[in-house]
Amino acid sequence: MGKKKYSGSKNNKETSEGLDAALVASIVWKVKQKSDKTTVDILAELQDLKEKGTAASKAGDARLASENWARACLDIMRLRQAPDFAKTYVDKPRDTPERQYVRKLAEMMFLLNLNLAQNTLKAMEASIADDDLDLAESLSGSALHALQKAAAEASVSDLTGMPVAAGGDRDGDIRGGWRASDAQMAKLWYRKARCHKLCKEWDDACQGIGLALRFAPTDATVLAEKESIIELASEMTEEEIDDLMYASSDDESSYEVLI
């Protein structure tokens, strides 16, 4: 009786080759689609993630909000880490569309981190209400980290708490010379002051709200936070509070901000 021929290996090889070809074609298509994205497409996708996060936050889903905002931050980091990012965008003259794109990424990163900080501040308040002070203290580190990243996007000086002047044309600035508006800077320092207030760190809270007032001296929310801090910081004298809130940014020798 002759041996029965087994043809399965041939069929398996053909099937495997077919699957490999389909997989390669799929990957090539995806890479091409990604490479075909314009800067407008990329900014639209980031804005969509930001808005999804905002919608989730308003609906009370803090976890989903943070996931969307954090994903958008990660996408921006990956864009900046691309080998050709500097050559294609950062090194272009200041008024070109490429540099404008870089500045829009910086502003988006700033706003996303402000949102992440705000989300964490809400969680801190809830933890304090539940008398879980250890969790609140742990969360404060996350909030301050997000605010530090936002400050970096705005090129805030560690010494004065104010944005440093933008450099010249083709300065190699990965943020394209973007600087936050006064309203945005006020929001940054207001949230930092709130974080320190929740931790009962009165020196930093006073300093933060003082900086917020420089950018928004008549803002009702900032003024209300100022009064709240003054009322709660009962262990400090009025003179100590004033020194921290209204320290002159011109006197850099005695004025240092820790973002």
Compact description:
The chain has ten helices and no strands.
Task: Walk me through the structure.
The chain has 259 residues and is mainly α. It folds into two domains: 39-160, no CATH class; 181-259, no CATH class. The protein contains ten helices and no strands. α3 runs antiparallel to α5 and α6 (133-153) packs antiparallel against α7. The radius of gyration is 25 Å and the shape is globular. The termini are far apart. The relative contact order is 0.08. The model is unreliable at 3-10 and 248-255 (pLDDT under 50).
Distinctive features:
259 residues, mainly alpha, 2 domains, 69% helix, 0% strand, globular, disordered N terminus
Describe the SSE topology.
Blueprint: H1 8-35, H2 39-58, H3 62-81, H4 85-90, H5 97-129, H6 133-153, H7 182-198, H8 202-215, H9 220-232, H10 238-245
Helix pairs in contact: 2-3, 2-5, 3-5, 5-6, 5-7, 6-7, 7-8, 7-9, 8-9, 8-10
Number of helices: 10
Please compute the radius of gyration using only Cα atoms.
25 Å
Given as residue ranges, the uncertain stretches (5+ residues, pLDDT < 50) are 3-10, 248-255
Report mean pLDDT, rounded to a whole number: 86
Report the count of strand segments. Answer: 0
Biggest sheet details: none
Give the class from helix and strand content and strand pairing.
mainly alpha
The tally of domains stands at 2
Fraction of residues in β-strands: under 5%
Tell me the overall shape.
globular
Q: Report the end-to-end length measured between terminal Cα atoms.
A: 86 Å
Element pattern in H and E: HHHHHHHHHH
